[in-house]
Amino acid sequence: MAALQVEGLACARGGIPLLEGVSFALAPRQALVLRGPNGCGKTTLLRCIAGLQPITAGRISCDPDVIAYAAHADGIKATLSVAENLSFWADIYGTGQIDAALDQMNLRALATRAAQNLSAGQKRRLGLARLLVTGRPVWVLDEPTVSLDTASVGLFGDVVRAHLAAGGMALMATHIELGLPEAHQLDLSAHKATLPEPGQGAFDEAFL
Amino acid sequence: MSALLTRDLRLAMRAGGGFGLGLAFFLILAVLVPLGVGPEQATLALIAPGILWVGALLACLLSLDRIFALDYEDGSLDLLATAPVPLEAVVSIKALAHWLTTGLPLVLISPVLGLLLHLPPSAYGWLILSLALGTPALSVIGTFGAALTVGLKRGGLLLSLLVLPLYIPTLVFGAEVVSRGAQGLDISTALALLGGITAGAVAILPFASALVIRINLR
Amino acid sequence: MASIWQYANPLKFMRTTDWLLPIVAVAAVVVTATGLIWGFFFTPDDFRQGSTVKIIFLHVPSALMAINAWIMMLVASLIWLIRRHHVSALAARAAAPIGLVMTLIGLITGAVWGQPMWGAWWAWDPRLTSFLILLLFYLGYIALWSAIDDPDTAADLTAVLCLVGSVFALLSRYAAFFWSQGLHQGASLSVQAGTRVDWAYKAPLYVSMAGFSLIFVALVLAGTRTEIRARRMKALVARERMAA
Asked: For B215, which of C153, C171, C172 is closest by C-beta distance?
């Protein structure tokens, strides 16, 4: 039974169609990597699945309470410490536990440091540790490995694998290899929206 | 929910949070007005209610654009919108945090500034009461304005243009309570209307603010 | 059975206004000119106010349209929010600057009238104050429209602002009346006190009010056509970019 199922999805940005006919399903212990050139609509697709943006066609069937979304920006407050940043999200998601996440993302030594004194890669690790404290099974990740060094990419791959092994799921948009050979791939360039004919319910038909 | 309130208060208190800016602005205004108007006690006593209310309003305005702009820039707002908390509650908590860090200090310091402006002794109680009753409305209305302009670069000036007209009823009834109280007139109608506006704004505007944020995040 | 919502289709709207707009425009010019010429040159001077009273033929219709324009924007915003008809949102956008200008005309003619009557260009009278506040609401609404790039987002946000603003504009009006008892005479035309303005004035006044309403309709139609054309151009550019 798939926890996240997408059928014939189409989405648009700024009124211009980007993708159409995107279908996939994600069952427990599965990971799916979205591929495609810059600007093809990876971020927009993930925002649609996270529920931030309306879709223009198709269906997303999924319990809204299973998704944990991680965007380009990590939502880290510079003046709060690492532990304070994590505790906040743990409280918001009602889990309250941050110790395991600190250990898994190798942030234990940095716990009391203010986030503004972290390096870009350390901030990214903190952003990903946020996913662990949500306790949600479906991770929706937008370019999760940006500004991570090789060791941290490996660490992140291990964390995702552990999450999958525990029955979790991951949907990622990324350019680089995460060392997850078992992950399925979906190339979005095959689903680029085509120019609709006027009169066929085109996006801009009202004005043509 | 309390986690969000704690976080917002903590952020406001820490360096760069802008806590106290509104208070300092309020103080400066109360010092500048007598310098501009002249030291006559009777004149100052007459205009004190209006000056204090306009001052409180502008001091509130000063920190409005921080309510959502910082969360929008660092991505927290996207994450909060996908978190298991209703966005209506998020904007209410944000407005509460704004009131606790801006409105409440203004209420507490207002008697001191009333002293500077020769406010008649009989009006102090009404000043504190009217500000305590009216400043929550300023925070909630301001949160709506901040939600409208959240995605805009340089939205600050636009925010003032949108929010200040919405502040007019609160200002009128609030200042009216104080000036009528100072003259020993009946204040019950003005006070009831001020309370009504606050109650209505607190009850309804968070829904509009949340709707507007969802539109802006789209 | 043709539905009124058909006219909310931009194409249908353009086709209809192709022939409707010239008719409305000509009617607006004729009726307004009739009302103003009749009012200015063929009415007697008032025994108290002299000929200054004749500015009423500009003042009252513009003040009326200043309020009606906002009400029209409110209705159009509601239609946009509920039924997502583009013409509705664009008509609200087109009406705002016209309402702003009507408010300005009302304020300026009021000042010109008030100077000889009250001895002051401006008084903080509740009616005058409410109009000044209405001006601020128009400014905010127009500023928000022009600040947002994405047209649908702008339409949504301004529609919400219009709804919330209407409530606060009403409250402000009530607040202004509460705050001061004023110099301004009561409403010039009212059902209960129908005898206050003589029929010699009333008839041309009604004609100018009709004329101003027609001017408003003609300008909103023209403005909406401009907005629709601008959107069509954007749609065409977007198509070109998609095809490339």
From this structure: C153
Q: Which residues of B touch A68 (CB under 8 A)?
A: 82
C contacts of A53 (beta carbons < 8 Å): none
Residue ranges in chain C modelled with pLDDT below 70: 1-3, 47, 49, 181-197
Q: Where are the domains of chain C?
A: 13-181+197-243
**Chain A partners of C86 at a C-beta cutoff of 8 Å?**
206-207
Preferred mutation among C148, C225, C239 to probe A, highest tally of A CBs within 10 A: C239
ipTM: 0.91
Phi-psi region of C54 (alpha: psi -120 to 50; beta: other; left: phi over 0): alpha
Sign for the CA dihedral angle at C208, C213, C214, C215 comes to positive
User: What gap in Å lies between CA B209 and CA B215, rounded to an integer?
Assistant: 10
**Which pTM value belongs to this model?**
0.91
Task: List the one residue out of A107, C125, C178 whose CA is nearest residue B186.
Answer: C178
Query: Which candidate, A17, A65, A76, places its Cα nearest to that of A45?
Result: A17
At residue A201 the predicted structure's pLDDT band, cuts being 50, 70 and 90, is low
Shortest distance, CA C3 to any CA of chain A (angstroms): 17
CATH 1.20.120 holds for C13-181+197-243: yes
In angstroms and rounded to an integer, the radius of gyration of the C-alpha atoms of chain C is 20
Residue A158's alpha-carbon distances to A165, A180, B203, in angstroms, are: 10, 9, 47
Touching B: which chains, 3+ CB pairs < 8 A?
A, C
Per-residue pLDDT for A19 more than 70? yes
